[in-house]
Amino acid sequence: MTGAKRLSILGLLLCSHFLVKAVDADDLQAREDDGAPASNDLILGNLSLCENVADSVFLPYVGDCNKYYLCRYGEAIELQCEWPYLFSAPTQSCVNSTQAHCLPTCSNFQLTTFSYERTCTKYVLCYYGHPVLRECLDGLQYNAQTDRCDFPQNVDCVESECSIYYNAYQLHYVPSKVSCEKYFLCGNGVPREQTCTPGLYFSTKCNCCVLPSNSDCQIPSRKKIVQPFSRLSPRIADIMCPSAGVHFYSHESRKDAYYFCVDGHGLTLDCSPGLWYDGKEQECREPKNVEL
To answer: Is residue 152 part of a domain?
Structure first.
């Protein structure tokens, strides 16, 4: 029995296991106000780990590679690999430590950002040891190459739609978000990119490649208006941040930037080109969706 299938069966048998409990920014500030040590638990805010993620997808546990979550009916169920195995999100299985693909750890003082794997839209901001879960809105996806929310035409992530099945031979087809000529074949929870014969489009009606006139592919004709660019070094915020807690604020003079504050320390972060920061939703969005 494969590690992935074994992990799947284990997860389904343990559906009554612990539901995830993570702190939010208010809880963190309350702890610090009471003199309690700061928590390094993942700060969810009002987000849900398994929202917009297919059933039976396994998600990594931030801060402990031995643990993982099973998404069932929108709930995140905390599980654990048997010792000495570690969880690997790409293969959706518990593997030897030499094969494990663990999430980065949060630095005590540096800003680090990384994808919350298998979700396509979520990512983690780490600053002064506090991991904060973030989510791209409006159909945007997290681009690990730029550490920002980006248009799906630049990312084409489908991992959140590829779940483990009981039958390893039961395949799932997922259309590309970039090209009508491409699609992904999900087997054992792992997406593999496929390309139609030139001149044909993929169609979800038959999960096959057909003439364009017979395809239901409706990818927007918008060009890649977000150009790839290298990561930018974070800049110290030019505002006074609260002494405790995690906070996000709109930039005082720029629509495409915002402030990220943790325990009195602040940084100025940029949106991807073409996006503006929405202070109400606390995330970068397309300008037409931003509430000014």
So the answer is: no
The pTM of this model reads 0.82
Q: Are residues 182 and 66 in the same domain?
A: no
- List pLDDT tens digits, range 93-114: 999 999 999 999 998 889 999 9
Q: Which domain holds residue 265?
A: 235-289
Cβ atoms within 10 Å of 194's Cβ, excluding its own:
14
Query: What is the number of domains present in the chain?
Result: 3
Dihedral in degrees, nearest 10, Cα atoms 61, 272, 230, 25: -30
pLDDT, tens only, 177-214: 999 999 999 988 889 999 999 999 999 999 999 999 99
Q: How far apart are the first and last CA of the chain?
A: 55
SS3 category, 261: strand
Mark which of 101, 135, 169 sits at the end of a domain: 135
Q: Which residues on adjacent β-strands are paired with residue 268?
A: 235, 259
DSSP states along 196-257? PPTT-EEETTTTEEE-GGG-----------S---PPPPPEE-SSPPPSSSEEEEE-SS-TTE
